[in-house]
Please model this.
Amino acid sequence: MRIAQRLERLAIRVPDELTDTRSDSKHLQQQVDAAQRRLGDVFAHDDELRRLDVDLADLNDQLTARDDPPATHDRSDGRCR
Model:
Protein backbone atom coordinates (compact mmCIF):
# COMPACT_ATOMS: atom_id res chain seq x y z
CA MET A 1 0.00 0.00 0.00
CA ARG A 2 2.82 2.43 0.78
CA ILE A 3 4.31 2.09 -2.69
CA ALA A 4 0.98 2.92 -4.29
CA GLN A 5 0.64 6.03 -2.11
CA ARG A 6 4.14 7.19 -2.98
CA LEU A 7 3.45 6.67 -6.66
CA GLU A 8 0.21 8.66 -6.36
CA ARG A 9 2.02 11.56 -4.67
CA LEU A 10 4.70 11.53 -7.33
CA ALA A 11 2.11 11.36 -10.10
CA ILE A 12 0.27 14.34 -8.64
CA ARG A 13 3.47 16.43 -8.76
CA VAL A 14 4.29 15.55 -12.39
CA PRO A 15 2.25 18.37 -14.00
CA ASP A 16 3.84 21.02 -11.76
CA GLU A 17 7.31 19.60 -12.33
CA LEU A 18 6.67 19.57 -16.08
CA THR A 19 5.52 23.21 -16.01
CA ASP A 20 8.61 24.22 -14.01
CA THR A 21 10.89 22.30 -16.34
CA ARG A 22 9.34 23.91 -19.42
CA SER A 23 9.70 27.35 -17.83
CA ASP A 24 13.35 26.67 -16.99
CA SER A 25 13.96 25.42 -20.51
CA LYS A 26 12.39 28.55 -22.01
CA HIS A 27 14.50 30.80 -19.78
CA LEU A 28 17.68 28.91 -20.64
CA GLN A 29 16.89 29.09 -24.35
CA GLN A 30 16.51 32.87 -24.02
CA GLN A 31 19.93 33.02 -22.39
CA VAL A 32 21.43 30.93 -25.20
CA ASP A 33 19.82 33.19 -27.81
CA ALA A 34 21.15 36.32 -26.09
CA ALA A 35 24.64 34.82 -25.84
CA GLN A 36 24.63 33.83 -29.51
CA ARG A 37 23.65 37.39 -30.48
CA ARG A 38 26.62 38.69 -28.49
CA LEU A 39 29.12 36.26 -30.03
CA GLY A 40 31.71 38.17 -31.97
CA ASP A 41 30.97 41.47 -30.22
CA VAL A 42 34.03 43.39 -29.13
CA PHE A 43 34.62 43.20 -25.41
CA ALA A 44 33.62 46.62 -24.07
CA HIS A 45 36.76 46.95 -21.94
CA ASP A 46 39.23 45.40 -24.38
CA ASP A 47 41.51 48.45 -24.65
CA GLU A 48 41.70 48.90 -20.89
CA LEU A 49 42.33 45.18 -20.41
CA ARG A 50 45.24 45.28 -22.86
CA ARG A 51 46.72 48.34 -21.14
CA LEU A 52 46.41 46.73 -17.73
CA ASP A 53 47.96 43.52 -19.06
CA VAL A 54 51.00 45.51 -20.22
CA ASP A 55 51.16 47.27 -16.83
CA LEU A 56 51.02 43.90 -15.07
CA ALA A 57 53.84 42.52 -17.21
CA ASP A 58 55.95 45.60 -16.39
CA LEU A 59 55.30 45.18 -12.68
CA ASN A 60 56.19 41.49 -12.85
CA ASP A 61 59.45 42.38 -14.63
CA GLN A 62 60.26 44.96 -11.94
CA LEU A 63 59.54 42.48 -9.16
CA THR A 64 61.62 39.80 -10.82
CA ALA A 65 64.52 42.21 -11.28
CA ARG A 66 64.26 43.31 -7.64
CA ASP A 67 64.10 39.76 -6.27
CA ASP A 68 66.91 38.29 -8.41
CA PRO A 69 70.32 38.77 -6.78
CA PRO A 70 72.90 40.35 -9.05
CA ALA A 71 75.50 38.02 -10.52
CA THR A 72 78.76 37.96 -8.59
CA HIS A 73 82.12 37.29 -10.11
CA ASP A 74 84.17 34.45 -8.61
CA ARG A 75 87.77 35.39 -9.26
CA SER A 76 89.19 31.89 -8.77
CA ASP A 77 87.55 30.28 -11.81
CA GLY A 78 86.47 33.38 -13.76
CA ARG A 79 82.77 32.49 -13.63
CA CYS A 80 79.83 34.58 -12.53
CA ARG A 81 77.53 33.21 -9.87
